[in-house]
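Milestone 3.1: sequence recovery, worked example.
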């Protein structure tokens, strides 16, 4: 008798977007505004000229971001990429397999992605990509704890341990706690994710903490 079919992160997100689903509540409302303001200020303060958004989803947050023209969104879901291309015809969107045609960027982004990488090999590959395709900064917005979760498409990990073990050429420059920490009574307006900003050992960067709204 065949066992249960293993969970596939790629299949889950393709089915979700194909059926009209969204990237989730973190891409709208005050959480989206907090993320956008943090990123926008960082881009200006550090003269970011190119960005790779690893896990762009339906690009709802992109509408709030003030990014340079040299932007590439990456996602495993063809349905999400088609939606992104239709909404933002001036931007470029590619699958992970097509990323080899893209030049490294000043900054790579991973926003609300890492805790959705259920499979160990998918997680490891995604982390390698984030740091391999960045020349100056890696900006991650994710949870950073090992804890069980009830949703099949969520797996929390202490990813900073992985970075410390596998990316010796990078250091954590800043950890910006979420002003709206997770509250089970208000799950759509709070989050377990914080910002983690990495740079090269000799990197100098300016970090402007946004005000709360």
């Amino acid at each position: 008798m065949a066992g249960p079919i293993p969970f596939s992160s790629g299949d889950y997100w393709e089915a979700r977007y194909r059926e009209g689903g969204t990237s989730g509540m973190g891409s709208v409302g005050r959480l989206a505004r907090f993320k956008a303001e943090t990123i926008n200020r960082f881009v200006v303060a550090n003269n970011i000229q190119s960005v790779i958004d690893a896990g762009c989803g339906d690009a709802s947050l992109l509408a709030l971001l003030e990014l340079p023209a040299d932007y590439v969104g990456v996602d495993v879901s063809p349905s999400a990429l088609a939606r992104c291309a239709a909404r933002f015809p001036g931007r470029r969107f590619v699958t992970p397999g097509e990323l080899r045609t893209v030049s490294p960027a000043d900054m790579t982004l991973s926003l609300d992605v890492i805790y959705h990488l259920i499979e160990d090999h998918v997680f490891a590959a995604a982390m390698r990509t984030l740091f391999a395709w960045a020349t100056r900064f890696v900006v991650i917005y994710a949870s950073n704890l090992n804890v069980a979760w009830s949703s099949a498409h969520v797996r929390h990990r202490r990813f900073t341990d992985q970075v410390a073990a596998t990316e010796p050429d990078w250091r954590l420059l800043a950890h910006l706690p979420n002003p709206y920490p997770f509250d089970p009574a208000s799950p759509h307006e709070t989050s377990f994710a914080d910002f983690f900003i990495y740079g090269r050992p000799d990197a100098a960067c300016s970090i402007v903490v946004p005000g709360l709204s």
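The mean pLDDT is 89. DSSP finds five helices and seven strands in the chain.
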